[in-house]
Amino acid sequence: MTIISTTQASSLAIEQQLIDDASEWALMHGVGIKNRDGSARHCPYSLAPVSFPRATFERLQRTTPLLGKLIHALSEDHHYLQQSLNSMGKADPFFARLLELHRQIHDGKVAPRQPLLIMRTDYMDDRSHGAQVIEFNGIAAGMGPFGQLAHQLHKYIQDQWPEAYQQWGDQPQARLAENHGLEQMARGIATTARKVRNDALDHGQPVFVMVVQEQEDNVYDQHLLAVALQQHGVRTIRRTFAQLADQLSSGPNQRLLLDGVGGVDVVYLRAGYQYIDYYLEHRSETRCCHTLSQTRVFIEQHKVALNATVSQQLATSKTMQMLVTAMSATEMARWGITETEAKQIKAVLAQMKPITPANIAWLAEHGNADEWVLKNQGEGGGHAVFGDDIFTKLASLNESEYDAWALMRRLYPHERERPALTVRDNQPAVVENLISEIGLFTLHFRGEAITDHGGYAGYLIRSKPASENEGGIHSGRGVLDSLVLV
Question: Which ranges carry the Glutathione synthase substrate-binding domain (predicted)?
């Protein structure tokens, strides 16, 4: 039996009271994950924010919209997408289907859909190379609302529990970095919806359709965006691909119509990045996933603002990231990027290598597996291989599968200077080696920035123990976090 002093007992009681209070604040404000029984639990979070260099953050705020500008231009260069991703498509069945859909939409015709690029670019601040891109997220680029709410949670703790904030803050005297991601995203989408409705000479309330997965747990982040849009006068609708397959139709002048609603102005995909999103369990199909993938094609054949277009999904693939990393400033000029902008972009792109017999031999003979990560084209957690497991995975691949994978220089970010207190399922845990991943959101409509900050639209911080490879909030050991700038 462990005996603790009265002072220690009082301190523990206060700490649990704080954790209860913070977790209840999170649930009350929608920072939650839906359980299978319909109840909710709070998202895991850090009790106080992480410090980040102000100069680096401000540079990323300037650079990330340039990446959005480049990705938009790439996504509208349909011949280049087909040509450059052809080999990858032969190695990855899902992307083969996307390339097929892309040809169906664009071959010999101009698709009327209007690209709304809502992109989250994820970075780590490497100890040697500085802030470097991990990946582009062009479809289902969510958790912007959670990013803003994590900032607000830390402001609440700072005001209500100042002693604990001082104890667990990375640099508690530094100023919290403002985060208006939810507000900026809602304002940008609402502005886009009104433009589309006005162009259609349609009156009444703008309509936003969010395409969602069945029985998913990350619904509160989505509802936070919906509520913010409603406050801008936008009607919000949630539908799965299966529901839309039976509810969409065409109106005059290529207007997209939804049964019982009327004209649709914006479609935002929070689904569609994996085969299961197109699978119909109770409908017989001669070819798997054909019906629902054709629903996506149907949407693109109408004058509706859309994120993500098939083109945007292809342009934010890991293979395209690798190709962009290898581009010179002269090559980027093809898509309207100046030499100065190209230098800014190149500075944040981590080295990548294709999987070839020569590169496999080089890694085995001269490389260090701990300096690289092996990635496939998958979105979300569970698609990266580390260390000596890289050799095991490469040995299991047929050469015909190589083009679906790539090597990326592994990033080793700075660990938090002080131990951090994280909370999961209302239980605290002290983490000695917390590291953070920063995602910056950008919004572009038809290639033009649509936020108050040149396309920048807030940030998302996810932190995890340095010993953990998977840092997802839902699928890993990650926790929500926010920033103080130093």
Answer: 207-315
Tokens of 346: 């190149």
Domain-ending residue, one of 363, 389, 408 = 408
Say if residues 255 and 302 touch (Cβ distance below 8 Å).
yes
Residue 274 CB partners (closer than 8 Å, separation 6+): 94, 378, 379
Report how far residue 465's alpha carbon sits from residue 415's, in angstroms, rounded to the nearest whole number. Answer: 9
Q: Do 307 and 246 fall into the same domain?
A: yes
Number of Cβ within a 10 Å radius of residue 317 = 25
Q: What is the mean pLDDT of residues 298-313?
A: 98
Neighbours of 392 (CB within 10 A): 10
Q: Give the span between the Cα atoms of 353 and 362, in whole angstroms.
A: 11
- Domain shared by 314 and 394, yes or no: no
Query: What Cα–Cα distance (Å) separates residue 324 from each residue in 68, 74, 280, 351, 384?
Result: 12, 10, 36, 10, 20
CB 171 within 8 A of CB 51: yes
CB 434 within 8 A of CB 480: no
Residue 192 forms part of a structural domain? yes
Which helix H or strand E contains 429, and what residues bound it?
A: strand 427-431
Q: What is the predicted pLDDT for the residue at 109?
A: 87
Closest CA to 268 of 141, 110, 136, 446: 141
Chain centre to alpha carbon of residue 196: 25
CA 169 – CA 161 distance, rounded (Å) = 12
* CA–CA dist 169, 421 (Å, integer): 9
- E-only strand ranges, 4-113: 32-34, 40-42, 45-46, 50-52
- In terms of Cα–Cα distance, which of 68, 92, 93 is closest to 315? 68
Q: How far apart are CA 442 and CA 180, in angstroms?
A: 12
Kindly indicate the confidence band of residue 2, based on its pLDDT and cuts at 50, 70 and 90: very low
Query: Rounded to a whole number, what is the distance in angstroms from the first to the last CA of the chain?
Result: 44
Kindly state whether residue 1 falls inside one of the protein's structural domains: no
Q: How far is CA 150 from the centre of its chain?
A: 16
Q: Which value, in Å, is the radius of gyration of the alpha carbons in the chain? A: 23
Average pLDDT over residues 349-371: 95
Cis peptide before 429 (omega within 30 of 0): no
What count of other Cβ atoms lies within 10 Å of the Cβ of residue 383?
15
Contact 67, 312 (CB under 8 A): no
Whether 12 shows a pLDDT value over 90: the answer reads: no
Same domain membership, residue 332 and residue 260: yes
Determine what percent of the chain falls in helix, strand and coil, rounding each to the nearest 5: 45, 25, 35
Strand partners, 126: 130, 413
Q: pLDDT for 349-358, tens place per residue?
A: 999 999 999 9
Whether the pLDDT of residue 398 is over 80: the answer is: yes
